[in-house]
Amino acid sequence: MPRVTIHRKAHFNAAHRLFNPAWSDEKNLEVFGKCSNPHYHGHNYELIVSVTGEIDPVTGFVMDLSVLRKLIQSEIEEAFDHKNLNVEVADFKTVNPTVENISVVIYNKLRTKIRTSLDISVKLYETPRNFATYSG
Amino acid sequence: MPRVTIHRKAHFNAAHRLFNPAWSDEKNLEVFGKCSNPHYHGHNYELIVSVTGEIDPVTGFVMDLSVLRKLIQSEIEEAFDHKNLNVEVADFKTVNPTVENISVVIYNKLRTKIRTSLDISVKLYETPRNFATYSG
Amino acid sequence: MPRVTIHRKAHFNAAHRLFNPAWSDEKNLEVFGKCSNPHYHGHNYELIVSVTGEIDPVTGFVMDLSVLRKLIQSEIEEAFDHKNLNVEVADFKTVNPTVENISVVIYNKLRTKIRTSLDISVKLYETPRNFATYSG
Amino acid sequence: MPRVTIHRKAHFNAAHRLFNPAWSDEKNLEVFGKCSNPHYHGHNYELIVSVTGEIDPVTGFVMDLSVLRKLIQSEIEEAFDHKNLNVEVADFKTVNPTVENISVVIYNKLRTKIRTSLDISVKLYETPRNFATYSG
Amino acid sequence: MPRVTIHRKAHFNAAHRLFNPAWSDEKNLEVFGKCSNPHYHGHNYELIVSVTGEIDPVTGFVMDLSVLRKLIQSEIEEAFDHKNLNVEVADFKTVNPTVENISVVIYNKLRTKIRTSLDISVKLYETPRNFATYSG
Amino acid sequence: MPRVTIHRKAHFNAAHRLFNPAWSDEKNLEVFGKCSNPHYHGHNYELIVSVTGEIDPVTGFVMDLSVLRKLIQSEIEEAFDHKNLNVEVADFKTVNPTVENISVVIYNKLRTKIRTSLDISVKLYETPRNFATYSG
């Protein structure tokens, strides 16, 4: 059967700051600029999850997009939406919530929930101009 | 010469339903939900066709985008636009018109019309949130 | 208090055809072209509902956008999404489902549910290039 | 001379929470839901400022869009971008930063800087689905 | 019958420069900056034409969107697309092609072709961030 | 460390024409059509630069997106924005400014400025419907 990639777009709104706890406030400000504001700022994150595999000849699906939608909702949106990533999301207690690191965390969360015969890729937009992709 | 990918975006509006004729109506409804509505629903499909090859040093083109535009128009838009995919498009008489399967059908139609030294990829948006990619 | 307009974007996918039952099939085809295909075609309708009124000084809201979201969901999306507008939606039994007429039907449905001190406007995209606005 | 409206799009990223200090935390949570999260969340705000007036026959401008761009930058983006609206922006010390109230604050800030023969309107997107318009 | 606005989106690509022939090159550069480059620069102009009137109860149309599409094509796109506005379009021989003035020229061209019982409005995007609206 | 791709979107407005100096005007018109207009036309070019590499565990960055933004600004936007590509940009004195060739030129300019342990890819939109990708 043909090997096809399906994509599902989702989104969440969150506050964050870029911050390395091993550094002084001055050093954080020097490296991360206004992104390091200790009072936080925030984004409308747009997320595209891509899943690649063979089409099931019975359903015509690589994976039911409705199942993928619900999986993103329960694993990512409920965990991140309307949250302060630094303060409220355990994954970022010791990991700086850059768009790169958030992409890796999302990939790892989904990787455990989707069967390994399917490849995964994550694209995360922090803004329409800044985004990242991670494929494991 | 450098190997570059050119992309052309096109679109068509069509009605469809997800349906496996081997199943009862109840089973179709159970698996495909409201997408299996026997009265059909529809989409504004957005299509991106990508063609990869070496730049022709005389024209600066991988392939004339205007030729690609007309090819998509004659092979895909005229065949699918303002049609009921299940009822009026022969390719879906026995193939369920999921976004995955429509992508494969579009790829196969274009593959026969574009010389084999050029690679093709098809991205098809069923909605802005659900889409698929197929590269043969 | 300042008079502000809030806007909420929603969407639904539906099949339809343009059709005047007083006319022959030939006349329908002549006037409506491929939009009159008897097997239907479809669209991803994008809907923006705008509500204008004074800001409530206690909440800072003209109207809770979350209430507006649920109202659009229950009154419009549940009625129209994944439906065949001509066949399954009573409002279009005798009304041609042009983008103009669908906008008026949506406006009228919402008008009865939103208090009259608030003005309403409806913008409906049939495609990204064809859309309509109705404000009563 | 013809009376024309020019529009300039800008953006800023900020953290905020919806909060009425006269209420208990429970009441805030009941009315504002997850938007009241005490740890804040955030948005990529997209802003469109519209200015209406007669075309100057010498320049062909209603107002130099480059001047409008710099005005939005100095008055709005520098004040709001990468800030926590509740904590760091004086305008929201006693005003709940709903999309309605932020629109009014932006309008008022710009109104004092643009000559009164020109009309102003402000459209503010909190998300692509939730937005507000204020025209004084 | 309800009074509804229909909108049609179109586009054209053109070169232009901002230029007042009564001024020296230095004065043009001082006022218009890089937009006055004597070798020209260019844009993908996006155009939205809006037409307001009563719905025809027989067709359900304010105006056939397909007729409007063809009218924009013949009157605007054929005149402006892939042209140098300053050099090749007579309307801008003595009129500076600012986004404001182009909007007025488009409005005037269409106004003579659409019956006067219908109101017209023109929105023209020079870039996604700079645009203008003219309604006569 | 995980290998991630970061993406930065930028833009520039420019005039150009497609032209092969070895050909007659008639031959240029025959091959390139209205894109060969000797008075030029223009575009709002949208550019996405992608950089792939390992995340730096200290910053959480593959490459500081702010550094990438400034690099695109100094190397590409300042060289191309509000310019006539054929006349004013040395790279296109003998290279036809097709979207394919502009992508290669942008890639080559950036390749010398970004360390070789990082992979680069360039996506360039000439219009929302015509675009190209080059990855070296």
Description:
Six copies of one chain form a homohexamer. The first copy, chain A, has helices at residues 25-32, 65-80, 85-88, 99-111; strands at 3-16, 41-54, 83-84, 119-125, 130-134. Chain A is of the alpha+beta class and 136 residues long. In chain A, strands 3-1-2-4-5 form a five-stranded mixed beta sheet. In chain A, a hairpin with a 4-residue loop joins strand 4 and strand 5 (130-134). The first copy, chain A, is elongated, with a radius of gyration of 17 Å. The model of chain A has no long low-confidence stretch (mean pLDDT 97). Chains in contact: A-B, A-D, A-F, B-C, B-F, C-D, C-E, D-E, E-F. Chain A binds chain D through residues 11, 13-16, 34-35, 37, 39-44, 81-84, 87-88, 127-128, and chain D through 11, 13-16, 34-35, 37, 39-44, 81-84, 87-88, 127-128.
